[in-house]
Amino acid sequence: MSWHHGLFDVMADGSKTCLYAYFCPPCALASARSDYDNSPFAFNLLCGSGVWFRHTIRKGYGIEGNCCLDILTAQFCGCCSIIQITAQVKKAGSKHDAAKH
Asked: Between the N and C ends of the chain, which has fewer C-beta atoms within 10 Å?
């Protein structure tokens, strides 16, 4: 399986997500992770990282890739990575929803 949207498809989920990721990347990333696994937003905001979240969400949805790509993408294309993660979670639903089907 691959990502629903490309890394540079920054308008994939609309301008709201793009602006959110640009002006408050930690909040956007914490929101995406909370939507993915219903984990507490505050915990994700204070204790999470882009690399860890990208890896967790990619593995959780069975998306092709590896840890090295997760590191490079999160470090050098941070906002685009956050937008891609957010769009993926919105399209695929939470991991709890996916487990029910």
From this structure: C
- How far apart, in whole angstroms, are the C-alpha atoms of residue 61 and residue 79? 20
pLDDT at 50: 93
> What is the rounded CA–CA span in Å between residue 28 and residue 64?
23
Q: Are the CB atoms for 80 and 8 separated by under 8 Å? A: yes
Q: What sign for the dihedral angle of Cα 45, 51, 56, 57?
A: positive
Angle at 18 between CA 17 and CA 21, to 5 degrees: 80
**Per-residue model confidence (pLDDT) at position 95:** 81
Q: What is the dihedral of CA 44, 77, 15, 47, to 10 degrees?
A: 10
CA distances from 3 to 30, 82, 93 (A): 19, 12, 13
**pLDDT at residue number 101:** 45
